Each structure stands twice: as structure tokens, then as C-alpha cells.
Input
Amino acid sequence: MNKDITGKSANRVDGKAKVTGQATYAAEFAIPALLHGFVVSSEIAKGKIESIDVAEALQVEGVVQVFTHENRPQTAWFDKSYQDEDSPPGSPFRPLHNNEVLFSQQPIALVVAETFEQARYAAILVKVKYQEAPHTTDLQANRDQAYVPPKYKSQPPPEKRGDVETAFANAAVKVEQEYFHTAEHHNPIEMHASIAAWEEDGTLTVYDKTQSVKNSQKYISQIFGLSEKEARVISPYVGGAFGSGLRPQYQLFLAVMAALELKRSVKLVLTRQQMFSFGHRPATIQRLQLGASTDGNLEAARHEAYAETSKFEDYSENVVVWQNVLYQCDNVAFSHQLIGLDVYTPLDMRAPGGVTGLYALEIAMDELAIAANLDPVSLRLKNYTEKDQNKDLPFSSKELKACYQQAAERFGWDKRSPAPRSMRDGHNLVGWGMATGAWEAKQQESAAKALLTLDGKLTVSSATADIGTGTYTVMSQLAAEALGLPLEDVTFKLGDSSLPEAPLEGGSWTVASVGSAVKLVCEAVGEKLLKFSRKLPGSPFATASLEEVLFEEGQIKLKSDPAQAMAIVDIMRQRELHFIEEEVSSKPAPGQKKYAPYTHSAVFVEVKVDEDLGTIKVTRVVSAIAGGRVINPKTARSQILGGVVWGIGMALHEESFMDNNFGRFINHNLAEYHVPVNADIHDIDVIFVEEHDEHVNPIGAKGLGEIGVVGVAAAISNAVFHATGKRIRNLPITLDKLL
Ligand code: MOS
Output
């Protein structure tokens, strides 16, 4: 093992391709004789299409066809054919299925033309008559409609323990509050897009924006009856996704449908407005009760969530599981109910459930600290849990105490004066707040293939994705390390459905899952090399076992005497091997079930609030992360920086504004949907706390894609309270709420 490769910062291996425009995104593949699609979106939120007149649109020069529910080709009959790996329980939306309108901006027609401009123009000429029905889009107003879903998408709320009613009634110190956050949309810079390239032999090559080529491939296979060979899905680069690419979106369905029917290649790119027509972080109401003794020992905790879903799928997230992960308490109760609205089904967005559940819990803990007259960090340390009370298991590792300690020290927390409005900087009120973050560190089954050629170059592949997280780079590092090759000699391939099976690129599990397969497959190549070397004349490894050798600098060396070495390429040459190829599948080890694997973080934030204007600036953030082994500190830090920026957006800017009159997210553009810009971002300091984890997976890394955003919105809310004395329990914290 070459110890110099992982744990060290490496530049992105795809960095140059990206900054020089060589990286091809889904809509950028140059396909000859391409047709262009444009989607017509429903203007109403609910009802029926009484008539749809496409005659005028068809007259436009270059228009080839207009697809509607009236003329769409036959597709799969059964609901379940439209389900994908990330589907919640329910009946997935089927584009152009019938004349029913289920949500605003539903795709109701696809215009296909020789040019994009022709298609877009003709789309305006499609005349739709609706039979409008009353819609329901107001979460708060429909709270009495909340229901317990027959099945939860991920895990059901944890079981009740102890007697929370009595414990809460008797608690000396109490917090009982409601917290709310609005819907948010993913808004990656790259719009969702698919090209269905029609080949002469009737097969399709599909270029799709996705977090899983396998998922997209299976989806179109099920619906259109295409085998894996008849429809290959390619997605080498993704311009941000954050969860929006976990499910196949409707542009994939429509592009493939049109290409198959027209026997031509079809490209379909959604507009920014249409990016608000599928999937969002669901608006959620949370109710919390925390009760403690006078010295701050938690005696009762209740966490309830009321979250929106569509009328056709029961989307739910793990919102109420975090109390059990973070704070020891014997009397607890949890519930998670859904409220069905006439919107598209919500969709996983970076740290789904965690970032929202901990938003509420970590503000409630801040309120409890104030009620108990305790420092917020002390309160958390007092109630620190050494086991995951959800499953009654010890943690695979947990360096959260070190996170609190190192972040507090770096931040200068000991200089905080606890009283609200007690710290100032000129006309600004200064607030310091903190919060805890946690996220699951899962490993999923994954496969990888390795090909070592006579020139000493190694190509490793798996059908995973790189949504900007650094997958290409980190997998290359893991492979280089396992076989002791220089990083330049390793190529990692992903984003092609013909490659070995990989899970969805999400859940922060890619390094743990695909990385384990990469490590394993490279070790299998190494083992083969050793086997071949043993029989060579004068081999220093004649009797050596795998444990007795190391792979370093392109050579196999004897651990006991590293001067005894053979170059990998020499072994291959002498044995007349042109290449060595291995493929493995890697599954979580059974022993893992004995531990609860979580990433943890502590986030400390400084805000400055203009006393007259109510404007909030997040001037400093220190985020300490315990995420196991860090493979590439540079890309790892970027993940946390990005997560913190997201957290600032969630706390202060992002809001998908539902206009209940129209039943539509009305600010469906980047001018009115605010995300943080450079001027909003100041000092962000990331600390990776040392954490060794023997149990979590063969890599020892816990995943860093999501933990960075968790806790940030709560820490900012707590800091705003500390600055102003005003507690805002409603995200985003905009001026109007604060003044
Ligand atoms: Mo993430 S929301 O699992 O892409």
C-alpha cells in the first residue's frame, strides 16, 4: 500500500476537463441530425385537460410532432414499471398518461422540432382548455388532514420509550415549541437534460443528467421494454444535483419516448422554470417538547413532524430520528405524519430529514440551555449519548466531543457573553450560536472492475456518478494506493450503464460503497500479480503471502526486505500477460450490524445583525467534522464549504414560495429564488477531527457529502437569537420576520 496517496490533497483529476470546457454534460454531446424537444407545462394545479389543440403548433416550420396524452405511444401498463430505486411508496407520476392534471407545471405536451427555437415557439401555440378543480397546496391550513402513511420511504419513526407525558409534566425546565421551514428547490446550475440518440440498429444511447445511470437505465427499460443492450445510459459529468438526479425526471421519459416513436435522436433540456416542476425539499412543521431537570439532564423528549407529500406518493424522510442519536433520554416519543397536497412528490435534497430534523432539535436544545441557564455546549455534553438509542447499538466511532472542543476553541467560544444583545460591533448586534450535526454513514453493495495493462496503466470502473463531489479523484486515489501506482497511471471511469453495478450516488455513501469495491478489486489484481510472480525464476516472493508484501512505486516488495522487489510490468512481461482484469462486488460486512455508523459535526457561527435594518451577515463559521478517514482533504473541505454555504442559504435565503391561489411555486427563477452569492459568504473554517473507525467499512471513511449542511441553519438561528433576543422558528429568517 502506498501511504502517500490517500490522506493527501490531490487536485481533481477531472478539473482540467471542466475548466477548459472539455467535460461534456448531458445536453452537450454532439449528435448528428438531432431533433429538439420543448415541454408544455400545465397552467393549473389540478383538474382535467378538456381539450388540447396542437394544429397550429404543427404548422410551424420544422415541427415534427407534438406529443400529448391523446397520441402518446403505448408504454408500460403497470404503475410499478414507473418506479425507480428512489421511489417512495405510491403510484409514480406518468408523463402524458391521461388528461388528469395533478400539479402545477405538470408536463402536458412535448413539441419536437428541427431546432430548439422552432420547438419553443410552437409550444406557445399549443392551445389547452382546462376543467379546473379546486386544489390544496397550503400545508399549515391542512394540518388536520395529516395521516400516518401505511409505509415509510426510509425508516418509520423510532418506538416510544418510557413515559414521556409524565416526565414532561414533571420536568423542572421545559421547552415546547413549533418550528417550520419552507420548501426548497435543488437548483443545480446544469438544467435537467436528456439526449436519446437513435442508432441505425434501433438501439438508443441516452445521455442523461442523473445520479445513477443504472437507475435511469432500469427505468426506461421497464417502461419501454428495452434491454440493457438496447438502451445504454451515459452521464460522465453532472453540473450539480444535490438529490435532484436521484430519480429519473420526466425529460428522460419524454426524450426516449419521442426518439423511439420518431426513430430520430431527440434532445430535451428543461428550462429554469421547469426545474421547479419536479421534486423539492418538503415544507415541514415540527413540534418539540424537551423537559429537563434544573441541572439540565434531559428527562423527556417528544419530536413530531408534519410534512408535505403529493397526493400520489407517500414521501417521507428521517426527520425525527436524531434525538436518539445525539442525546441520552429515557422518556421519548416520536411521530411523522404526512399532509397530501396537489404538488409533485417531494424529493431527497442534501441531507434529507437530517438537515431539517436537526434544525428543529438543535434550536430546541438552545432554548433549553437558556431555560436551564446553561452554556449550550455544556448542555449537549451533559446529555451526550454513547449509544444510538434508535437501535440500542454502540457507535462504530464517535468523536463528537472532540468536534465540540476543537470547534469551540478555534471559534473562541469562551469569550462569549451569554446574555442576548450583549455583544456589539458598532451599530451591529453580534450573535454567537452553535449546533450539532449528524448523518448516517451507510455502505451499499457495489461492484467495480479493474484492468491493468502491460504499460503499467490501471483503469478502474463502476457505474457510479460524480456530481461534483470528487468521485473521479478519490476513486483514483484509492486504486493508486491499493496497487502502489502513481496517481497519473490510474484512470477511473463512471457514468455508463454498461459498467459494473453501483448504488445511487447519494446518501454520502459513495466513497464507502464504491470505494470499498475499488479497494477490493485492486487488491484482487495485486493478489494475482503476486501469484504470477511466485513462479518466476529467482522470484523473491516464491513463498511470500499477500500479508508479507507491499505494493509501492509500481513494484511488489518484500515487507521484511524492501530491496527485494519486482516491477509489476516486468512480472506481466515475463509471464506474457497483456493485461490482468478483475471484477468484484463488495457488500457491507455482517459484523457492521453490531454498530451504529454516523458522521458528526459541531458548527459554531457568528452573525452580525444591523440593528436598524435587520440585515444578517454570517461573518464566521467554524465547522468541525468527525467523518472517519479523510481520503482527499482538498475535495473533502470543498464538500464541507459547499454544505455550509447551503446551510446559510437555508437559514437566510432559500424559499420556494407557494402561491396558494395558483397552487404554484411562484418564484420559479434564480432572480426571485435567492441563493447565497459571494457577497453573502465570509469566513468558513473547516476542521477534520481525527477519527479511526474499524467497523464502518473497509475504507474507514464515513462520507462527507451531506454532513456539512446539517446543523448550520440551527446554529445561525441560535446566533440570531443571541444577537437580537428574538427567536425565529421559521425558515428562512428574512428581514420581515426579524424586524
Ligand atoms: Mo443526496 S439528497 O442522497 O443526493
Remarks:
- The radius of gyration is 27 Å.
- Residues 74 and 224 are 9 Å apart (CA to CA).
- The first strand starts at residue 34 and ends at 41.
- The pocket of dioxothiomolybdenum(VI) ion is lined by residues 211, 242-243, 246, 348-350, 352, 506-507 (CB under 6 Å).
